């Protein structure tokens, strides 16, 4: 892996795996019942000889599921893809930053009052779903939260909680990297430092498991979360956005 330009598109996909996925000449069609754009979008890895035809094929796949076609456009997407999608009327939404930090300076050991387990407890799931996941409505044969649990269970991870489960986070060991996901604090428990405690505990946990660097993704609009991450030593290393069919 190139230390200057790691494949964040792939790392994010591996850490947040859609239960249903189809590979098509290097592109991945992901489906998880509409729960999160990340798990319900095309991951276009690399160039295609006929780009418009490739987009047609992706649109046909999602039309067959009764879902809008969404593309995740990151560093590994074909250079002309954004232009082609814009020309078809796709909306650009959720510009997102990839932030990274070195774990060399992170303390090894437990952070007081933070517990980390290898599966999410009911209180962990309830907090995360209330803060971040509950915007996904039910309506299909599989409940939205069950889709979310399938995503979470698709890869080994550590589930951290603090403040009697009022603050949670998820760490995914990926070799040299630790992915940080699902950072959420109950609205009634904010401004008490719980989010920072969860993050520091996950970073220490990841370092104990061999990671030397951590990454996370955060929307550009989430100023509060960005400030927290910057305060813990994270800096911007990349970005991506989504394009949604009209």
Quaternary: single chain
- Rg on CA atoms, Å: 18 Å
Structural class: alpha+beta
The strand count comes to: 11
The helix-strand sequence is HEEEHEHEEHHEEEHEHE
Strand order of the largest sheet: 4-11-5-10-9-8-7-6
N-C termini distance: 37 Å
Percent strand = 25-35%
Mean pLDDT: 92
- Count of helical stretches: 7
Helix content: 25-40%
Structure overview:
The termini are far apart. The protein has 246 residues and is of the alpha+beta class. It has an 8-stranded mixed sheet, with helices on both faces. It has a 3-stranded antiparallel sheet with strand order 1-2-3, with helices on one face. The protein has helices at residues 8-15, 51-65, 81-87, 122-133, 144-152, 194-208, 223-231; strands at residues 20-24, 27-31, 42-44, 70-73, 91-102, 114-117, 158-162, 167-174, 177-185, 213-219, 235-244. 30% of the residues lie in helices and 29% in strands.
Sequence-ordered SSE layout with sheet pairings:
Layout: H1 8-15, E1 20-24, E2 27-31, E3 42-44, H2 51-65, E4 70-73, H3 81-87, E5 91-102, E6 114-117, H4 122-133, H5 144-152, E7 158-162, E8 167-174, E9 177-185, H6 194-208, E10 213-219, H7 223-231, E11 235-244
Parallel strand pairs: 9-10
Antiparallel strand pairs: 1-2, 2-3, 4-11, 5-10, 5-11, 6-7, 7-8, 8-9
């Amino acid at each position: 892996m190139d230390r200057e330009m790691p494949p964040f598109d792939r790392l994010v996909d591996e850490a947040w795996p859609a239960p249903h996925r189809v590979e098509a000449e290097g592109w991945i069609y992901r489906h998880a019942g509409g729960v999160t754009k990340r798990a319900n979008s095309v991951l276009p890895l690399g160039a295609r000889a006929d780009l418009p035809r490739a987009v047609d094929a992706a649109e046909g796949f999602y039309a067959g599921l009764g879902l809008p076609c969404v593309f995740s456009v990151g560093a590994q997407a074909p250079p002309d893809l954004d232009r082609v999608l814009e020309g078809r009327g796709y909306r650009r939404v959720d510009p997102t930053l990839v932030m990274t930090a070195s774990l060399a300076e992170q303390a090894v050991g437990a952070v007081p009052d933070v517990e980390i387990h290898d599966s999410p407890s009911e209180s962990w799931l309830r907090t995360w779903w209330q803060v971040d996941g509950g915007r996904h409505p039910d309506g299909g044969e599989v409940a939205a939260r069950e889709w979310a649990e399938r995503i979470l269970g698709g890869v080994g991870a550590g589930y951290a909680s603090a403040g009697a489960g009022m603050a949670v986070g998820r760490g995914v060991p990926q070799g040299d990297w630790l992915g940080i996901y699902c950072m959420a604090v109950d609205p009634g428990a904010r401004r008490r430092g719980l989010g920072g405690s969860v993050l520091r505990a996950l970073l220490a946990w990841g370092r104990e498991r061999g990671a030397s660097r951590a990454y996370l993704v955060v929307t550009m609009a989430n100023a509060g979360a960005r400030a927290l991450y910057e305060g813990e030593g994270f800096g911007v290393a990349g970005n991506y956005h989504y394009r949604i069919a009209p």
